[in-house]
Every structure is written in C-alpha cells, then in structure tokens.
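Next comes a concrete protein, fold included:
___
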Amino acid sequence: MEMIYITILFFTFLAGEAKNLKFSSLILIPHSVFIVIAIFSLAYINNIPSLYLIGIIDFIVRAVLMPIFLLRCLRKRLEAEVRPSIIHPLSIALSIVIVSVGYHFIEILKASVIPQALSSFSCGLTLFVYGFYLFISKKDLVKMIVSFFIIENGIHLLIIGMIPHMSKFIEISLTFNFVVAIIFLVYLILRLNEVFLQEKIKKFKESSSQRSEQ
C-alpha cells in the first residue's frame, strides 16, 4: 500500500507543478487510477465489499469523465500556465516539502493518535493540504480547477480512511461528498469554457478593429 500512496503523491506533484496545462490535466488520469487501485486494495485487505462499488464509480467519474471534460475545455487553447503567484523553482521546493515531509509526518501522527484509521487517511490529508496550497498559490483558472480536483480526492480518501469508526455515517458522507464534488467540478469546467469563449470573442473583436483601422 505504501508504494501505491507514494505513486499517488508523485502524480499529484506532477499535476500541481507542470507548467503545461494539458500535461497537468492528463496527469490527473493516472493520479485517479492509482486512487482507485488504493480503494480496491483497501476493500480486499480489510474485507469491505462496499468499497468495490465506490472504486468502480471513482474510475468512471474521476479517472475518465472529469479529465476528459477538462481536456475538451483546453482544446486549441493556450497550453502554458500564466501568472503564477510565486516563482516556479520555489513552488517546486515547497511542493516537495509539503508532499514528502507532510505525508510522513501525518503517517506518524495517524499511527499514534488514530491507529484504527485505514492507511488512506494519511495520503488523503496530504492531498488535501497540498491541494489547498496549490489553490491559494496559483492564479491560473485551470490550475485552480486541478487544485480543487486534488483537494476533493484528498477528502475522498480521508473519508474512506475513517470507515472503521463510523461505517454507516461514512457511506452517507461519501455519497454526499461525491454528489457535491461532481456538481461543483462540472460548474467549474463550464465556467472555464465560458471564460475561454469570452477571451476568444475579445481577441476576435481586437483583431477586427485592427484590420478596420488599417
């Protein structure tokens, strides 16, 4: 399980720090696939059959539909991230600290405070913290959506990690979290497409006015 979570964190880091927006969006696919693998592994190891259904739904929505929607919005658009709030080398350094040191610190904290929680708890909390860092440090709208995607996946793993404590409550929470997250992600992606359309219209008007002046 440890290697699965390290792989998730690695792809999370790539999605957060890649300056090419299409590459960043594509990385969300293996990121989500390994989350699904982690969920299936937890279901098998801990004998929790309900997690298999959650894993299947996650694969369809998180690993297939949402990245496709985001990539469709980015089609024929600018590919490079714009207006980062901090310089890229510093952002990479901070990301490494948050992802690597944060994960191991949270793992130690979990082992001493809530040892009954599933192993996904530490990875989920790390994703949440790192996604929140990305959300407040990036000014690019696409990167903010990627950040929210990471935050939501972190919350998802966090909730799953608490299943041994409150199984029924967790099932309700997972359903609620899933519905709210999907609605919000769809809204953000539609809003992103709207912004791109407005930019295209603005550029068209500017080019038209320049041609008329000539």
The chain has a mean pLDDT of 78. Residues 2-213 form one domain. The radius of gyration is 19 Å. The longest helix spans residues 167-213.
